[in-house]
UniProtKB/TrEMBL annotation:
Entry protein name: Cytochrome P450
Stretches for region Disordered: 1-21
InterPro entries: Cyt_P450, Cyt_P450_E_grp-I, Cyt_P450_sf, Cytochrome_P450_Monoox
SUPFAM superfamilies (alphabetical): Cytochrome P450
Cofactor(s) this protein requires: heme
Family membership noted in the UniProt record: Belongs to the cytochrome P450 family.
UniProt: heme binding residues: C396
Key words, A-Z: Heme, Iron, Metal-binding, Monooxygenase, Oxidoreductase
Superkingdom of the source species: Bacteria
Gene Ontology MF terms in the entry: heme binding; iron ion binding; monooxygenase activity; oxidoreductase activity, acting on paired donors, with incorporation or reduction of molecular oxygen
Entry keyword annotation includes Transmembrane helix: no
Source organism per UniProt: Romeriopsis navalis LEGE 11480
Any Pfam family hit: p450
Keyword Heme in record: yes
Amino acid sequence: MASTSTRGIIPTAALPGPQKNHAKAMKTDLLGYLEQIAPQGDFLKLPIPLVPTYLINHPDLVQEVMVRQSRRFHKPFNVKYTANQIFGDNLFTSDGELWKILRSVLQPGFSTERLQDYSQTMIDYTEQIMAGWQPGESVDLCAAMGEVTLRTSTRCFFGLDLYSSQAGDNLLRFIELFFQRISGLPVPAWVPIPSNRELKRIIRDLNQFFLPIIEARRQSGEDHGDIMSMLIQAQAADKTGYITGQQVCNEVSNLFAAGYELVAYSLAFTFYLISQHPAVEAKLLAEIDRVLATQPMSTEALAQMPYLEQVLQESMRLLPAAAITSRQAIMPVTIGDYTVPKNSMILIAPWTLHRRADIFPEPEKFDPERFSADRQTSHPIPNFSHLTFAAGPRACIGKAFAMMQMRINLALILQRYRLIPAPDYEFQPVFQFNTRPRDGMPMVLQAR
Ligand code: HEM
């Protein structure tokens, strides 16, 4: 158990101010709102009509929901409904037996050996992106990190570089449609409105693109060393009937969608934080230069850069791109001293948990030393407090993949460039299912 104490449910009525002010604040700036109310209790009932909704903000309560009682919770109906209309059944939103099968089929695709194979792709695309850069020019870092992420993941997942292709554009549009839908009223896919017609066209085009590739690969039996090949092998061995060609297609699109924005924005946030902290930057550049002076980039080289990993962990603590996760109770569940009714929505917000001053002293300070081996020995961070990739059985399957890609991107780019925010750039993170910088991130490339 963590040493911090939990502080009971504070019902909505106990939160200060009229209810309508809460609703308005939640709508205009959800992260700001949660940040403001979180210090008032570890278990807060939020003023949301119809569905009882709670924010939990303590590592012990997180452990209850994500680990000990994880079977009593499912992914929330609105996320399931919206995502399934777009991606079909998939690992991210399925529950029960289907989830178990999909997770066990996909897990080997992220093994240490597979990651070792993907590392060269990650290195190659970082070099390719930089080949198009000129010292002194300004780039939109969100777009650039989006490009490197799209090319890397489509190559590792499907064996194809889908950048600037119809299929790549369709995948990106898929993600946008998901965000638009999850932020508005859920409209069934059969209602003939323009966005539904567009969705139908994209689903048809992506099926027409992927299904023949899947079928050709199935017939040839050739292993391309990517996630798609692994799923096709699982399809051949499957006795349950769950792993159809369509399921393989859904899964590869969903895997791409689950990681794309989170990786691109986490990278952009990290470059920004480094640019604002000269002492961190100096220490990091010294480490990268020392290691890469005697060897090319590789997984062995990365293992010699512990400070790089600390910088990334601290950046994702302070600015978690997956700022809020949620669960829905499938039965009444007792968490700590309280029982929440069936269908309750539980929000777990890394954004607020990572700002608990009793766990992360001076929480607004960007301090990569929090994650150093020494500090971890003298002041260990309690389990279930650092939740960037969630915890328990539904923790992120792509964590090691994402960490490796981001460390490779950061080290190779910083070896050559300092990134300086454009003169009138104002950094402002906003929440739209994920956290993203408002209006992109213009950065000037200064050759080192
Ligand atoms: C910085 C990058 C990333 C972050 C911060 C991140 C974060 C997360 C979080 C917080 C969850 C749990 C969501 C929940 O409980 O509702 C999750 C799940 C998941 N992530 Fe990631 N993720 C990242 C990259 C990736 C990548 C690259 C992939 C694809 C390879 C990926 C695939 C998934 C999938 C499929 C799940 C659902 C797993 C399951 O339910 O069994 N993620 N991720």
